Amino acid sequence: MSKSRSCFGYPLSIFFIVVNEFCERFSYYGMRALLVLYFRNFIGWDDDLSTAIYHTFAALCYLTPILGALIADSWLGKFKTIISLSIVYTIGQAVIAVSSINDLTDHDHNGTPDSLPVHVALSMIGLVLIAFGTGGIKPCVSAFGGDQFEEGQEKQRNQFFSIFYLAINAGSLLSTIITPILRVQQCGIHSQQACYPLAFGVPAALMAVSLIVFVLGSGMYKKFQPQGNVMSKVAKCIGFAIKNRFRHRSKAFPKREHWLDWAKEKYDERLISQIKMVMKVMFLYIPLPMFWGSRWTLQATTMSGKIGAIEIQPDQMQTVNAILIVIMVPIMDAVVYPLIAKCGLNFTSLKKMTVGMFLASMAFVAAAIVQVEIDKTLPVFPGGNEVQIKALNIGDNNMTVYFPGSSVTLDQMSQTNNFMTFDADKLTSINISSPGSPSVTTVVYNFETGHRYTLLVWGPSNFFVVKDGLNQKPEKGENGIRFVNTLNEMLSITMSGKVFENIPTNNASSYQFFPSGVKDFTINGTEIGPNCPRDFKSSNLDFGSAYTYVIRRMSNGCLEVKEFEDIPPNTVNMALQIPQYFLLTCGEVVFSVTGLEFSYSQAPSNMKSVLQAGWLLTVAVGNIIVLIVAGAGHFEKQWAEYILFASLLLVVCVIFAIMARFYTYVNPAEVEAQFDEDEKKKNLEKDNPYATLEPVKQTNM
């Protein structure tokens, strides 16, 4: 154990640990921010596979802490575990950076890798190494930081956990801003393209820096030796206690204070006492996973990201959480907690965690209120047995369309005001005619329920039914664009790098999706005059809208493009999410920082990492609960899901408050010191048996 030096009343060694954690979190979140795009755009997987691999990796990162904790507490010790697994982690980051080098297998220099399996294999090896690295060191770093404090430095240690949590969020915040900027740079030896090697290389370099910083502090750390295979002893002791209790279940045997006391015949009291401490805390953890169920990115996709002069994409709203944490951690520590203490309130760790859960519950109520406002603005899409139809006149004549129970007359190049909803059984006939033309044409089409259709008309007997394929707002807040070709030739259109290929005459392309902003597009066809422009611009796209662009020939032979709205853009502003993020962040700061500190302070010295891993496991279980609830409960209304989460959190908050009421705080160091004292006395008695016998002799006399 090294002598610890101090600075501002803190051990100097913790500054190395905090910088190490900042760099490691920057490295992890920076790499994670790129994964789905890398899988989709570089490796060429579809959205579903990319997302599935991403979630599997994220889950693995939360399950491996148990492994790291066992290695640290039972075998290598925290210091050596952090060093060893950081090396594994750094290699993993380097491997995934190498896997993204296009020129690695691009032997013919055409800009695409010739051997994708090599890139896939390398990236999977990299991810597995990273999962074991990041997960393995996670419980050790926080516990190792806590180890650096002396007895009587509880206040500084509590503040360390706040600074530690601040470092986590500052690292993740900066990396999620910086790595996407690096990705859009162009680089490559033979062909220039999105610079994934740089975007993955910077996190890899930061991980190497993290490892170097940690090693530099080596001489200042307090290092505790592991005490053998702790978990094996714990498991055997619990197993023996249960077995022994079962054997002595008759009333002839007197009851014991705690069921673990039935292990006293075989195991020493120190171990039994340590297991009791851990079991008490683990029992408290049971309701905690519910806290980690807060995800609102989906809600942001149905909102407008224009906040004043700036424009925010839906997935960027998550950074609000990290920004608020960076602001709120110091405010809580420097202002809120001292004020509560001045009011004479005993704001214990478990009370803080209860308040944190209550605030998170209120955050979901706020989210539900915002969702109700959003729902008022959302278009109605066809339900069970319904069909929605709109008519679009792409011809040069006025047209009349007869629907069951109503008719609409459309001028040239115009559409019905909105989609009309019909019960599929009652949609018996649709007829079209043109003023001045005696013929009436019946539209014959087998409409599928639950879908939207566009009826293109351009003459008394000319029509075409297009199945829209868009039965909800576009995902991720993007905008759907499709083109209708009225020319007598096939057209291909390129818009912002995406191609609408071979659109037949009087027909529509499928929708493709684009983020907000003005988009350039080029029309390619054989019959476009040499002096006619081919390049056009879209309108300024907002969030969550859909448009049809009709291409027609003007009287001078050149092309014109007319825009028709299919789905209106989102109108509720993303700024309305800030109150719920504020409530959640306050809850998270009070709950999460306190949870880290509580898990450390209540754990016996030989199980600090194991209890930190148990805390992290609640996060993993929480994420699984979110997936199950979202998957199982197909809610008609999104607000109902938020209210369900708010209710569950409130119920769990009450249960936790009751459990916390009966929890007795312990000081593991004092308990262990008492055992040390008792052991010393016993050893003295063994060495000098007359020390206890002498008074007996005198009495006998």
UniProtKB/TrEMBL annotation:
Reactions this protein catalyses: L-alanyl-L-valine(out) + H(+)(out) = L-alanyl-L-valine(in) + H(+)(in); glycyl-L-proline(out) + H(+)(out) = glycyl-L-proline(in) + H(+)(in); glycylglycyl-L-proline(out) + H(+)(out) = glycylglycyl-L-proline(in) + H(+)(in); a dipeptide(out) + H(+)(out) = a dipeptide(in) + H(+)(in)
| Topology versus the membrane | Multi-pass membrane protein
Which InterPro entries does the record cross-reference, listed alphabetically?
A: MFS_trans_sf, Oligopep_transport, POT_fam, PTR2_symporter_CS
Molecular function terms, GO-annotated:
oligopeptide transmembrane transporter activity; symporter activity
Q: Which UniProt keywords apply?
A: Cell membrane, Glycoprotein, Membrane, Peptide transport, Protein transport, Symport, Transmembrane, Transmembrane helix, Transport
Q: Using the UniProt record, give the first listed, main subcellular location.
A: membrane
Family matches, as PROSITE patterns: PTR2_1, PTR2_2
Residue ranges crossing the lipid bilayer per the database entry: 12-31, 51-70, 82-101, 121-141, 162-182, 194-216, 277-294, 322-341, 353-372, 613-635, 642-663
Q: Which domain of life is it from?
A: Eukaryota
The family assignment reads: Belongs to the major facilitator superfamily. Proton-dependent oligopeptide transporter (POT/PTR) (TC 2.A.17) family.
Role, per record = Electrogenic proton-coupled amino-acid transporter that transports oligopeptides of 2 to 4 amino acids with a preference for dipeptides. Transports neutral and monovalently charged peptides with a proton to peptide stoichiometry of 1:1 or 2:1. Primarily responsible for the absorption of dietary di- and tripeptides from the small intestinal lumen. Mediates transepithelial transport of muramyl and N-formylated bacterial dipeptides contributing to recognition of pathogenic bacteria by the mucosal immune system.
User: What is annotated about its quaternary structure and interactions?
Assistant: Interacts (via extracellular domain region) with trypsin.
Name under which the protein is recorded = Solute carrier family 15 member 1
